[in-house]
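Lecture notes, continued. The same structure-token format from the folding unit now serves as the input rather than the output. Read the line below as a description of shape only.
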């Protein structure tokens, strides 16, 4: 396991450089010029030339890329074109909000999703299964921006129970967390159902029933535990994507997180902000996948046996 973790961490370095190269090239290929966003299109050529030189936009793309990589190697991500603040400082300041929102969404989505998936699998073909399946598909089919606006309208403006937007404590977090959790809840329910159906008819389940083990223990320990691998995979992927910043949800609700910060950078063509957010997001995604792989090792004994064989 230690060797496996070391290999994953070592692969992170070339992956980050690859992501950096692709992102840098695509970012600089975007239409528009950040200089005009800074000084305005009616500014004089002298001012435009001066600002372009100050931010390094007068250099060729190859020289700018080498300079950016050199900056990364020192642990820096540059400064925002518009605020002149260190990008890393802004990301560190906004990340706790994104983390809180991601954890809130997972708390809302994971337990109900797994429970609904388990019930649907155990009631296969019955009314409960059909209702849960229809409910899960509905959650997956509704766009996040639409469900977010409906929740904001109902609970924020009509009933006035929760703040419709802004960043703060639990009351501010509830609406964006619920909005973010709905597609994840539907996905987890469907994946849990399929995974449990693959396990429920296996010989060791029939043996457990023949031994007279309590039905509740069979469902919780024997069935659900052995069906966890696909479910953990989906949860890990969703959580990693939320840590990268839920762009639509954070923008709709005015939540001051990584996703909204990234969107602002894209709109303004603030290249250091875009690059910094993508690099941090890639790192978090790889680390989240690493945590999921470690959980496999402890959830499923077959993974440990395969690892020993290697």
């Amino acid at each position: 396991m230690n060797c496996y973790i070391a290999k994953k961490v070592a692969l992170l370095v070339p992956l980050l450089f690859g992501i950096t190269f692709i992102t840098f090239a695509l970012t600089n290929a975007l239409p528009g010029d950040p200089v005009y966003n800074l000084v305005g299109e009616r500014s004089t050529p002298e001012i435009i030339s001066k600002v372009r030189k100050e931010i390094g936009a007068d250099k060729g793309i190859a020289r700018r890329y080498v300079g950016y990589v050199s900056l990364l190697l020192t642990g820096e991500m540059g400064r925002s074109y518009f605020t002149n603040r260190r990008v890393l400082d802004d990301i560190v300041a906004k990340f706790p909000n994104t983390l809180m929102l991601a954890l809130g969404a997972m708390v809302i989505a994971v337990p109900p999703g797994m429970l609904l998936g388990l019930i649907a699998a155990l009631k296969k073909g019955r009314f409960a299964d059909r209702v849960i399946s229809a409910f899960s598909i509905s959650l997956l089919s509704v766009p996040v921006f639409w469900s977010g606006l409906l929740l904001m309208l109902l609970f924020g403006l009509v009933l006035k129970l929760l703040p419709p937007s802004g960043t703060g404590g639990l009351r501010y977090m509830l609406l964006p967390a619920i909005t973010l959790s709905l597609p994840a809840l539907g996905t987890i329910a469907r994946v849990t159902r399929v995974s449990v159906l693959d396990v429920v008819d296996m010989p060791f389940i029939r043996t457990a029933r023949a031994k007279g083990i309590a039905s509740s223990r069979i469902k919780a320990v024997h069935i659900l535990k052995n069906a966890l691998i696909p479910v953990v995979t989906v949860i890990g992927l969703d959580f990693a994507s939320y840590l990268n910043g839920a762009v639509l949800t954070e923008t709709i609700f005015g939540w001051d997180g990584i996703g909204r910060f990234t969107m602002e950078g894209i709109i303004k063509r603030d290249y250091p902000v875009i690059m910094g957010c993508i690099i941090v997001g890639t790192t978090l995604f790889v680390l989240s996948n690493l945590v999921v792989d470690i959980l496999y090792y402890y959830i499923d004994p077959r993974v440990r046996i395969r690892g020993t064989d290697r």
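Point for the exam: Residues 245 and 259 are 4 Å apart (CA to CA).
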